[in-house]
Automatic annotation (TrEMBL):
Stated name of the protein: Sodium:proton antiporter
A GO term, aspect molecular function: potassium:proton antiporter activity
Topological type in the membrane: Multi-pass membrane protein
Lineage, uppermost ranks: Bacteria, Bacillati, Actinomycetota, Actinomycetes, Bifidobacteriales
Pfam families in alphabetical order: Na_H_Exchanger
Domain Cation/H+ exchanger transmembrane: 13-414
One GO term describing the cellular component: plasma membrane
Transmembrane segments: 45-67, 87-107, 113-131, 183-205, 240-257, 269-290, 310-335, 356-381, 393-415
Species this chain originates from: Bifidobacterium jacchi
Keyword check for ATP-binding: no
GO biological process: regulation of intracellular pH; sodium ion import across plasma membrane
């Protein structure tokens, strides 16, 4: 029961961290999760945590590295493979030696072998932390490719080096030749084993799919079990790196990209969603666990009266300096030696290339793998005595982890800050990419039942892509977006005025005893206006929150008013039915009246745009472009057949359109988490989605 309670608490902390990160975007999510974990570990109802390194590697690191390897850009990885392997192997060994020598010189009580073990544990960068980079810093795709490639391969070198250094510390002897042979065997054996299993798994999964035996359930289960089984099998072979086996298999797995048809596409979509949830949960859990373990890891040494706390702080500072300096020197040397792909000549180290070296230096934070390795240090040596300075070594490792994470969080934005403004061409190209991915996912959801509705939505997205391509580089996106938002406000004002006029007519005719038909018609008008107004206000509230997180109170009030209007509408319907004054209206009739009101709002905005073209408040080109969009929407509405008859089909299309906006928002969030776009760009893209949800440009 305690384990189940611990799992629930960790998941709750992960969910909470995702909300907190939205309000403090300058602080990376991993840091927020570490702080939450540290706080949680002090709460009385939180169970005690004992980290089993073997369980941690198979439960967290194996699936995360498999997913990272499977989704990484293979062509980008090949282009940066030499640098990535140099950092993963060469730098890891150099860091091990440099940290070991420096720490032993500073604190001779720590044996050289134990200091080398700490250096080996500090070799691996944290793949989870690397994947979260690029949120507030503007990292190039090449820089991210190098960092991600390094994080895929450097775990094995760090683990093997750590194991041999600890063996030397325990037994008192160290064989360099044996260690080198073991390192090569671990690397080559793990890679070959993972490649072999990957090829077999590809053949097996594709064969199952070709025979039509694959179902969504079996596919998801096979995918989820593969990294766990592969890691355990590789470790059971002995002298083979399970981590490298998982990475190699992930790089060569391709069965999810084979096959055609809606069933395959739907299965791939479900698989992506499941892996997305699992990845987010495991990523967050890793740092929550790290935060929960840090207080105990550091507390034992800090509270020990026989240990000089100043020496501990000095050791953390020295080791952090050595790790960062070694990394910068190594990256600088690699950039200086690497040849240009086009000219095959070595390029001089310009200011931009030095900045790139600094970015990749601070972009290699240490994390939970380092701490989990340190916890495997035995309590006793071969002679039966206590392992010397065990708690102090764990304390230093934990301190270096915190320092490197803080440097990654606060130094990267200073060295490579996000652009303050998004260029027109860039934001339009990103928008086109989002729309393309949305179309791909919608295409995979087409079934005979929803085919007509989804094709209408896909057609609207295709037209949006075409118009964006025509506008690429021609319009200022911020000015045009502001005009769209203002036009949305004009629609809101029109609907409000129409709603007020309808309510006034109802009040005037109520005393005169209007006929049932007239009362029903006015009731439909009121409800149609209220529903359309709710849609517009909901989009405006989202836009306000995207611009300023302090608009939460206004959003709550707006939702309360919307709920109040809906309750009043239902109450009015029920009262009219009880009094038998009006027949019960159908949703089709309300939907048809909503379209009539929307057509009036479009005409109102078109008139307003013509007026604004003669003024100086807005750019004339912006007005012309938006006027064209509203004209298209007006023509589309007028060209429809009897709205009442086709209301059911149009309602199905509207449902599909709402789903498409949810898909679009999900793709934007995925791109943010992958570091493909910045938070500023994501805010702009989300704002566009909220505008389009009721804007004339999105009308079907």
């Amino acid at each position: 029961m305690a384990i189940f309670q611990l799992i629930l608490c960790i998941i709750a902390a992960v969910v909470l961290s995702s909300f907190i990160s939205r309000f403090i975007p300058k602080v990376s999510t991993p840091l927020v999760q570490i702080v939450l974990g540290a706080i949680a570990s002090q709460l009385p109802f939180f169970p005690e945590v004992t980290l089993s390194p073997e369980l941690f590697m198979v439960l967290f690191i194996a699936p995360l590295l498999y997913l990272e390897a499977h989704e990484i850009d293979k062509s980008a990885l090949l282009r940066t493979l030499k640098i990535s392997l140099s950092l993963a192997i060469g730098l890891a060994i150099a860091t091990m030696i440099a940290v070991g020598a420096a720490l032993h010189a500073l604190w001779p009580t720590i044996s050289l072998a134990a200091a080398l073990a700490l250096g080996a544990a500090l070799g691996p960068t944290d793949a989870v932390a690397v994947s979260s980079l690029g949120r507030e810093a503007s990292l190039t795709q090449r820089q991210l490719g190098v960092l991600k490639g390094e994080s895929l391969f450097n775990d094995a070198s760090g683990i093997v080096g750590f194991q041999f250094a600890i063996a030397a510390a325990v037994t008192g002897r160290f064989e360099v030749g044996e260690a080198a042979n073991e390192l090569v065997t671990s690397f080559v054996g793990g890679a070959l084993f993972g490649l072999m299993i990957g090829l077999v798994a590809n053949w097996l999964f594709e064969t199952i799919r070709s025979f039509g035996w694959e179902t969504t359930t079996t596919r998801i289960l096979m995918e989820l079990f593969l990294p766990f089984l592969l890691y355990l099998a590789a470790e059971d072979l002995g002298h083979v790196s399970g981590i490298l086996a998982v990475v190699a298999a992930g790089l060569f797995m391709r069965f999810d990209r084979t096959g055609i048809g809606p069933n395959v596409a739907r299965t791939n979509i479900v698989s992506t969603s499941v892996w997305g949830v699992l990845s987010f949960t495991l990523n967050g859990s890793v740092f929550i666990l790290l935060g929960m373990l840090l207080p105990d890891a550091m507390g034992a040494s800090w509270q020990d009266p026989t240990v000089d706390n100043a020496m501990l702080i000095g050791a953390i500072a020295l080791v952090s300096l050595v790790v960062v300096a070694m990394r910068f020197v190594w990256v600088y040397a690699m950039l200086r030696l690497v040849r240009d792909e086009a000219t095959r000549m070595r390029r001089p180290m310009s200011a931009s290339r030095i900045r790139s070296a600094a970015v990749m230096t601070f972009g290699g934070p240490k994390g939970t793998i380092t701490l989990s390795l340190m916890f495997t240090i035995p309590y006793f040596v071969a002679s039966g005595e206590m392992f010397p300075m065990r708690d102090e070594l764990i304390f230093i490792a934990a301190g270096v982890i915190i320092v490197t994470l803080l440097l990654a969080n606060f130094m990267l934005p200073l060295i490579a800050p996000n652009r303050n403004g998004d260029a027109s061409q860039e934001i339009n190209e990103i928008t086109i990419e989002v729309l393309r991915r949305t179309v791909e996912e919608l295409t995979g959801r087409v079934t005979p039942d929803n085919r007509r509705a989804l094709l209408m939505v896909i057609d609207s997205y295709t037209k949006r892509i075409t118009r964006l391509k025509q506008r690429t580089g021609e319009l200022d996106p911020q000015g045009y977006a502001q005009l769209q938002i203002d036009a949305l406000g004009w629609e809101k004002d029109y609907v409000k005025q129409r709603l007020a006029a309808s309510k006034q007519r109802v009040a005037q005719t109520a005393n005169a005893g209007a006929a049932d038909g007239a009362a029903t018609e006015r009731g439909l008008e009121i409800e149609a206006c209220e529903r359309l107004l709710d849609q517009i206000m909901n989009s405006l509230r989202h836009i306000s929150v995207e611009r300023n997180s302090g608009g939460a109170l206004w959003q709550i009030r707006g939702r309360s008013r919307a709920l109040q209007r809906r309750v009043m509408t239902l109450a009015r319907r029920a009262w009219s039915k009880l009094r038998r004054t009006t027949p019960l209206v159908s949703d089709d009739e309300i939907f048809a009246h909503m379209r009539i009101v929307q057509l009036g709002a479009i005409e109102h905005v078109i008139d307003r745009l013509y007026e604004e073209m003669g003024r100086s408040a807005y750019n004339t080109e912006h007005c012309s472009a938006l006027l064209l969009d509203y004209r298209r929407a007006e023509a589309a509405l007028r060209a429809r057949p009897n709205m009442g008859v086709s209301a059911k089909a149009i309602e199905q299309a509207e449902t599909a359109k709402r789903e498409s906006y949810a898909i679009e928002l999900g793709i934007i969030q995925d791109m943010v988490e992958a570091g493909d776009i910045t938070r500023a760009q994501a805010r702009t893209l989300r704002r566009n989605v909220y505008v389009m949800s009721v804007d004339a440009d999105s009308s079907l």
